[in-house]
What does this fold into?
Amino acid sequence: MSDSQSAEKTLPPVVIGRERFALGALAIMVLNFIMVMVVVALCPLFIGPIIGFSDLGTVNASLAIAHMKPLTLLKACRDLSLFLFLLFSSPIAWCWWGARQYLTANTKGMLIFTACWAIFSYVFEFKHDLLLDGTDANLLFPIILILLLAWRWRQLSDLRVAPRSHP
Amino acid sequence: MTTTSGIFGLNWLFQIVRPIETLNFAIEAGRRDVKELFSEYWAFPILLSVAINTLVYHKYGIDSYLNSTNLLVIVLSSLNVFVGAMCLYAALALSRARVELAQVLSAYTISVIYAPLLTFISIPTQLNIFRVMTVLQSKHIDTLHALPYFFTHPTEFTVEATFPAQVIGIFVSIIGSAVGLASTVLIAESLTQIARLERTSTYLAVCVSSWVSILPSVACVWMQLAIAYTYLG
It folds into this structure.
């Protein structure tokens, strides 16, 4: 039996504890938020013209788009995409940092990110009077995470990813 | 036949309530033989999803027109699952992760076993789509003009939901999101562990692939709807 075969035979089973699952779920949520921002930034380039052309009867802006020459339209979409990408690049970087804190179970980083996220959520929800909406989960998850952190503060250190050893 | 499907049904119920245990069994099966993985873990959930879809189609009398329609619907529904797995494999390959297709398929099993639940949850949406298509057909709008008409008259098709229906709708949508989120985490985490990949890049690849796979999935659904529209009873 070769080394690789014996290594395969001794492969440990997949173990996903509650904390690891919760942190993974939070990371996926933050990564999904990044994807939403990326899609919105790319939207004018890919989806905008399609919606614009199919929605001619109702939206005046679409009519204006429809009367543009293809090259002008493409340039306008490119400029808008660039603008949106620049607008979102800072939140994207921030969310990327936050997702990494969850995945590496860095307790201090997680707390900083979660606190900022919670403050942002509260400010946003109060400003837009969405607190009683009930469908927005943004507000709920930071609270769950803070409770989770408070409950299992010490045990979380066991989840930290060990630094990679270089050959 | 009934006994066999009953056993498969019980097995599937066990799988959905014990996801991590199922994941480990699926990984073992995938390591032995991918065919075994498909027959033991993929076949029943896919067939169940297709059966749910077919029942919805049957309600609108679509299957009474042409048998090949059913076959096409089955192929397209099944294709959706494989498209998701292939997108994940491609995303991991692009991120230069050393991972085998069998490992990806084994990890993706978790998404497959929850597929019937998500199909079941989407029944009201599907019924609403058929309702809209019936209205479009009653106005004698052909397939080519259906989409532009739908976009230009969106308010014509909205239905005001009553209080309990609205609450149930929100609850069902939360369950759907939770199942999707849980299966994504399990796929990402199991891939990280079985292929010994870097956690952050694996999670990112899984997340990106779930977004990218929307496009082919939408294409599959559009084809199904086009077939349904043609044979709507």
